[in-house]
């Protein structure tokens, strides 16, 4: 399996996400970046009870439940640019799966 990942902050929800591109299967998927969320909560404790941020987390959960078909890593990068991620913030790295 050829798997790549990058870390982003979603431009609309401001939720930290991990983006995976599975080159073997041809899709991109999203996952909430729980490690970054935990760090943010430690610094800004009020976000845990902030209604607006919690709504953003719910929207991120919906995003994470879908796989988006794409044919190449370049298409995955273009997809992220279309949703508002700046090119300099898209840095896919290969994940080695055992």
List the helices and strands and how they pair.
Elements: E1 3-9, E2 16-22, E3 27-32, H1 34-43, H2 51-64, E4 68-69, H3 73-82, E5 93-95
Antiparallel strand pairs: 1-2, 1-5, 2-3, 3-4
Keywords:
single chain, 98 residues, alpha+beta, 5-stranded antiparallel β-sheet, 5 strands, 26% strand
Describe it for me?
This protein has 98 residues and is α+β, with helices and mostly antiparallel strands. 35% of the residues lie in helices and 26% in strands. A hairpin with a 4-residue loop joins β2 and β3. The radius of gyration is 14 Å and the shape is elongated. 12% of the residues are buried. The model has no long low-confidence stretch (mean pLDDT 91).
Distance between the termini: 10 Å
Per DSSP, the total helix count is: 3
Question: How many domains, as an integer?
Answer: 1
Give the SSE string: EEEHHEHE
**What's the shape?**
elongated
Spatial order of the strands in the main sheet?
A: 4-3-2-1-5
Structural class: alpha+beta
Q: Tell me, rounded to a whole number, the average pLDDT.
A: 91
| Percentage of residues in strands | 25-35%
Fraction of residues in helix? 25-40%
Q: Major β-sheet, in short?
A: 5 strands, antiparallel
Low-confidence segments = none
Number of β-strand runs: 5
What's the alpha carbon Rg, rounded to whole Å?
A: 14 Å
A few lines on this structure:
It contains 3 helices and 5 strands, in the order βββααβαβ.
């Amino acid at each position: 399996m050829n798997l790549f990942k990058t870390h982003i902050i979603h431009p609309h929800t401001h939720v930290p996400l991990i983006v995976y591109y599975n080159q073997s299967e041809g899709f991109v998927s999203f996952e909430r970046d729980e490690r970054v969320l935990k760090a943010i909560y430690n610094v800004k404790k009020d976000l845990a009870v902030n209604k607006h941020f919690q709504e953003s987390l719910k929207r991120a959960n919906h995003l994470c439940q879908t796989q988006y078909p794409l044919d190449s890593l370049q298409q995955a990068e273009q997809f992220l640019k279309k949703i508002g991620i700046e090119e300099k913030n898209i840095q896919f790295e290969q994940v080695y799966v055992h």
